[in-house]
What does this fold into?
Amino acid sequence: MEGAAYTVGPTGNLSIRNSSMLRNFGGEVLCDATVEQIIIEDGRAVGVLVRNTSAGQDGPITEIRAKNIVCATSVFNLHNKLLPQDHPSVKEFRDETKRTIKPSNGHVFLFCKIRGEAEELELPRHNLWYFNSYDMDQAFDQYYADPVTHRPPTVYIGFPCTKDPTWSKRLPGVSNAILISDGLFEWFEKWHGTHVHERGVDYESFKEQLAKHLLDILYETVPQVKGKVEYWTLGTPLTEVSYLASYHAASYGTKCDTNIFNRLNSKWTTNPQTSIPGLYMAGSDAFLPAVCGAMYGGILGAASILGYGGSLRMAFAFLSEFANDLQEANPKMGRVAAYLMAIKNFITEPVAN
It folds into this structure.
């Protein structure tokens, strides 16, 4: 296991390459577009209503029709925002006796600009995890009750500048760090519905108090950066609502606990099928929580639409791409050998793929 991969260049390259691949297959990617509602006709999902985001609530609405609709933004967004609110599935989902799943927590994100080259500062290439207690239950209870007085019990610390091989050429003399800790939507609920940069002094003061905890943790964990953080900005659960349209800032969609395996929830989670013909799930709710679960959930969503024959064609297309890459790297490799190597890599090195 050689760890996870990282982009060469800005992480925006992921969306650029993925959207380019989609267009090559005849698809299209719409930016600055908000899906307002899924169109249901005669009990079947037949399209979506899309609004230009920058134009605001009064912006023009475009109707897009499709044979199948895929929702990858969680069952909570699906039933609280996207489906017509008088639909029977929405009424059933909102009846809490019909499900035990809940939205996941949100997070607090600290982004730091650091003066100096990563090598000179000896910043670690691996990710760091901060823990402040052996009794995590108590620590989280205290933190959730009073995040100003108590530090976050766990914090992820990463340095993207050490992972991107082009960073020093693109941004000489500058490094960066990202810190992520848990955060509750309820802390910020009174500002919900307000616009970015217009949430007032109290909101900014609360952010500064949260940021101080994270900066102190950064300086204690990586002391060589103290005094060299030239700029920082903090994202809150409301940031996730504003930019990711997360329902109640649920970073992982559905909360990651054993309730997702409860039979009562089988029609809501771990299942790419929905009760509405033509409507499918992808992402973590189609399989399992977190990053890898969401990726495999995308495959399951596609497989549900394609059926057995289409799924085999999809698998063959993946292997063909892997084989093409192997032959580009080694032109002397034959086609059969490339396919065999692609199959081996796919089975034995899933992280690299």
